[in-house]
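ok posting inputs for the S-adenosylmethionine job
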Amino acid sequence: MRIPKYYKESFEMLVPKLYDFVVNISFFGNAKKIRLKAIKQIPKNSKKIIDLATGTGELAILTKKLFPKSNIIGIDLSNGMLERAKKKAKNKKLNISFLRRNIEDTKFPSNNVDAVIIGLALHEIPEKPRIRVLKKAYKLLKKNKVFVIMDLNKPKNIIFRNIFKLYLRIFEPDYNRANKFLDYDLERELKKIKFKYIRTSYHYLHSVKIITCKK
Ligand SMILES: C[S@@+](CC[C@H](N)C(=O)[O-])C[C@H]1O[C@@H](n2cnc3c(N)ncnc32)[C@H](O)[C@@H]1O
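and the output
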């Protein structure tokens, strides 16, 4: 499997044991609430759902709880994050497949999935591979099925924006990349790939956005 250079540079710095704790304090205990808002974009009849860059599996686990009969697959490159995800799912007695794959090239068949979700990962991936991930999501999906993205957004309020940027400086493995992402027009890129744009909602003082689109 090809391990991207940006992955080695940034993601190996993540500490799986601390990840959930840091995300939760970053959202002042609201991480689950925001994740649930993203998962609720997935239509009820979705049978096969893939969580790209699943990390410690938070999105995949909440998705399984909301879609107990569906086949949920979480993929990531980090062994440490995947181990943590598997442990959490096992403790909760949830049957989720956690697999080590590169999200740029998942090796899954095309037109085979009812929903794809990705949370808090795209801002950490450079632009070219990011576009490859978006294109991969498009390929994986069956026609008319949804892709949900939850990621960082530039807060409108100037004071909060500066606090938020300070937070990024402290916690992001690559501050410049994350900061540049705040000005990146994800919706435009999705439309270029031929996704049908549905909506964007903003949360947590506009610091997080959830984009829903369809193949
Ligand atoms: C910030 S974490 C996000 C985790 C999770 N989705 C969440 O909502 O908290 C980003 C994850 O992306 C994974 N990742 C980054 N690039 C990847 C790639 N090319 N293939 C697979 N996983 C990747 C990292 O290993 C890391 O676990």
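notes: The two ends are 27 Å apart (CA to CA). Residues 4, 7, 11, 14, 23, 53-55, 58-59, 76-78, 81, 102-104, 119-121, 124-125 surround S-adenosylmethionine (CB under 6 Å).
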